[in-house]
Specification:
- This protein has one domain: Rossmann fold.
- It has seven helices and nine strands; from the N terminus they run E-E-E-E-H-E-H-H-E-H-E-H-E-H-E-H.
- The chain has a nine-stranded mixed beta sheet with strand order 1-2-3-5-4-6-7-8-9, with helices on both faces.
- The longest helix is centred in the middle third of the chain and has 26 residues.
């Protein structure tokens, strides 16, 4: 991990861009790296996994979540997902996107083959990269866990919750297509979960999201559903997610 820039935002939390191999990322910490304002070192860490739209496009939303987390005394980090931003496209993904758009334009159901081609290669690549990033982040003196995950591609969160024992709790956003294979993996998830669902999400299969929630093996799992479309998540839903992390990462 190599840090490439550093700036203090709002006089309240530090933003540092980094590269991990060829993977860009950002780390946010309360106060400064040496004298945090809100919590003693090392800090609990929340991994902010963006949708595959590129960090630059998603930056305003990510930094807003990081700002809230810093106020609660957490460090946060994000990385560019495979195939996003300036990273090379994943093989077959562009064709899967074309097939998805064609099916939606025709008013057809999105088939399993399209969903698998769109999501599974991303999960297979992203999860090991998140684990590599976690290895590097937890070597820093200011971050020591416990670790939470908060992410927009729910299948990445499911896989990471299954294979990564350092993840203690997760906030998952039910706003993306879910391959059938992920339902079996969901039964192996045991960490506390807080799942956000926009009830009128135009790009989400609501029943699939409900079925996935039902499949999770966690003893503690909460479904926070709100009316509204994909980008209409109300502020109080984010505040509820923040309280969830405060309960489980303190």
């Amino acid at each position: 991990m190599r840090f490439t820039s550093e700036r203090l935002l709002d006089g309240a939390f530090l933003e540092r861009e980094f590269v991990l191999g060829e993977i860009p990322g950002i780390l946010w910490t309360p106060g400064s790296a040496s004298a945090p304002v809100f919590a003693p070192l090392p800090l609990p860490l929340i991994l902010l996994s963006p949708p595959p739209l590129g960090l630059r496009q998603m930056y305003p939303r990510l930094v807003a979540r990081a700002r809230q987390a810093a106020a609660d005394g957490f460090a946060t980090a994000t990385i560019e997902l495979p195939g996003s931003g300036q990273r090379p496209r994943l093989p077959g993904t562009e064709q899967a996107v074309t097939d998805l758009r064609r099916a939606l334009a025709a008013g057809e159901a999105v088939g399993d083959e399209i969903i698998d081609a769109l999501v599974l290669p991303l999960v297979d690549r992203a999860v090991p990269e998140w684990q590599e990033a976690l290895d590097a982040l937890l070597c820093l003196p200011e971050t020591g866990g416990p670790v939470g995950y908060s992410g927009g591609v729910i299948s990445i969160g499911v896989r990471l919750a299954v294979v990564e024992p350092r993840i203690a709790a997760a906030v998952l956003f039910a706003g993306s297509y879910v391959p059938r294979a992920m339902f079996e993996e969901a039964r192996r998830v045991t960490i506390p979960l807080h799942v956000l669902l926009q009830w009128d999400d135009e790009g989400n299969d609501r029943q699939a999201a409900l079925n996935l929630f039902d499949a999770f093996g966690s003893k503690e799992k909460t479904l926070h559903a709100n009316t509204g479309g994909h980008t209409g998540v109300p502020q109080f839903a984010g505040e509820a997610a923040a309280r969830f992390f405060t309960r489980h990462l303190r």
